[in-house]
Amino acid sequence: MYNLSQINLLDRIREQYKMKNHLSPYLKFNRQEWASLRNTVPMTLTADELVSLQGINEDLSMDEVSEIYLPLSRLLNYYISNNFNRQAVLSKFLGKSQKTPYIIGIAGSVAVGKSTTARVLQALLTRWPEHRKVALVTTDGFLYPNRWLEDRGIMNKKGFPQSYDIKKLINFVADVKSGQDKVKVPVYSHLVYDIVEGEEIVIDCPDILILEGLNVLQGTINYTQANNRVFVSDYVDFSIYVDADLPLLHNWYVNRFLKFRAGAFSDPNSYFNHYSQLPEQEAVNIANRLWREINELNLIENILPTRERASLILTKGKDHKVDLIQLRK
Description:
The chain is α/β, with parallel strands linked by helices. It has a single domain, classed as P-loop containing nucleotide triphosphate hydrolases (Rossmann fold), CATH 3.40.50. 41% of the residues lie in helices and 18% in strands. The protein is built from nine helices and nine strands. The chain has a seven-stranded mixed sheet. The longest helix is centred in the first third of the chain and has 33 residues. It is globular.
């Protein structure tokens, strides 16, 4: 159940959405209308590759890729080509080469399928005839280590704005955007639920960077403790918000939790190994509580209010299928 403050905030969000919907800055497409915009873009992924790209709680179909993601990759390719053409003009004017990576941000709730969207787009954009180099980074790597969160008593706020080293994240995006080579990213392990000390991945001058995370579209209102006035969204060229109704998200979260309980949680090294030993109903009760007290609260307070900042909103219905696409005019 929602508390009073959550209900009031949800009501405000709905009212704002209705007002914006009346004079919307978005073009709206149903699934069939959007699918027609694929034009003649060929399918470049195999059925086996789709299996490797989908999340644990999703069944990614060829229809979903051909009807939703291929038109989106076509649109993105136009935007990216136009961006690089402008860079070529600037390089010619300045008399020296200018290379600025194109950054795509993907935001949305826990369990909505952001990671699947990011992986599919990376695979598709890599296979366009231009053969561009596409890197994928999640903002999980910029969470503070568990020890830091525990010292401040905010382990139950993991994923909330205060749990991120926002300065380090912004420095990373700024370095990539400026064309710096071999930019390092901390590694986050979902198995141990923590930053892996001493491990890093290196992002070396990609043509395109896909940045995926809860906080990609957040700004000053979310990071009131930050001294800077520059945020991740300031560096993003095109942003996608993956959306779904709260009851669906709740159900997907619980189902995903149970699948993890039967799989990854059973690993003795898993931070959540103790959940795998519980009776199923007790595990369901815990998943419901974690959703209500942490993930839903973070969604309502910090993530959902950023939805209308996105360049594109993908709204999912049952079975994780996108049934509404809104593209900023």
